[in-house]
Design a protein that fits this description.
single chain, mainly alpha, 3-stranded mixed sheet, 23 helices, about 65% helix
Amino acid sequence: MMISFLIRMESIKNKTILKLIEKYKNIWALEHLERIVGWDLHTYSPEKAIRLRSEAFAKISSLKQELFLDKNFAKLIEESKKEKNLNDSEKAVVRILSRTLREYKIYPKEFLEEYAKVISESSKVWEKAKEEKNFKIFEPYLKKVFELTLKKAEYLGYKETPYDAILDSFEEGLTCKDVENYFKELIPGLTELFKYIEGSKNFCYKHDLEQEEYDIAKMEKLNKEMLKFLDWEDKNMRLDVSSHPFTMAISNEEARITTKYLGKNFFDTYASTIHEYGHALYELNGSKLLEKTPVIGVASYSLHESQSRLWERIIATNIKFIEANLDKIKKLGKNFEKYKLQDFYKYFNIVKKSLIRTMADEVTYHFHILIRFELEKEILENKIKIEDIPKIWKEKYKKYLGVEPKNDAEGVLQDMHWGDGAIGYFPNYSIGTSISAYWLHRIEKELGKIEDLIINEEGIKKIKNWLKENLHQYASTYSLKETLALNKTKIDPSYLLAYLNKKYKSLY
């Protein structure tokens, strides 16, 4: 049974918890504004804004710590742990605030300020380094980011590897062994499938549509039309441009997404836009009963990625979805009119060894994540020096994917995540993708074949309503492992492997 049949969304009524939330609102307001400033940092802020912006971020970080460590607030959190007969929403408030309080008690104020300042600076330096294709520009900042991340792990504590503490900070309860066991199950199946594809007479390493140039204004229009088809709401969402697509959920009533335009290979921006839409939708569908509480944001990044990957890959690359939007796509220009439905379908689903994670196909994508997982673990365990990362990056890409980057921009500098301090985040992409295949399984079991649902806006709304009812509305009420257990499943790549084998053995 799905969550909705087991648990009814309940409002927060307990007097102690209500008092706790009232005091929390000062922190909520700071975080609300911090997200807006963070979005601006990656979109429209000028280069010279970074110095004072970094200092402001640092002060906000230490101010939040002060508010959390306020004697009355901290005491109220401790008292809330003793409350009996709490409903699940109330338990979640206690769980989340207790977890955050523990961290703020552990971290010195100076560490938080330094971390926030370094992350703010490094994210902008990463942009410049990528633009100039020069890792050396970013190297000292990345070194500092990893040093502070390791220090964070030491503060948090761990039993086997510092990576455990960092993984848990992104995904509650996730361990290095969890991820290693997951990849041990997943990678052999993907390797076997790729060998099948590579041996097919239909296998190819390029598609003509990859080189077709597009007008950015027309592509922007197509992106907005695709979002409209997906029931996008202008009143609480907006689409902008950044060097690396991302979503910033300001609240359950406002989400901002970005994409990028390269001028050719239009699937890149098409997929990125729909990917970020999946993130935004999850945040916006959180129950209003949880509004302005620490529960309203989505704490599980793997569940988050399960939503973005569901819309980006399982839905947006399905031949029936493409067919339903074919006329819109062909309006990109006369050079697109000559292509037929099958051409676009094969282009969207071409499988090949590649360098760029965000542009990787569904089969090889997970090797990109495995490489980053191994690198992060080895760096945090002092087995790799920062200056050696580009060299080792090339070696791992040669080993797993048989390709080597020609420059740092298509190699170690391609992702913004390390510059943002998101070390430990990457495994969520792969785990989330596996979970997206589980949601597909459930949707088809309860609503019917996905091909019949995605051909019109009515079917899209049915999928959205199902996701809201069964997952989105609960926001952070449950951790990843709790959510999966309630759904009678676990971190399990078998659903993904079944989906990929069915799709690609038919295609190839």
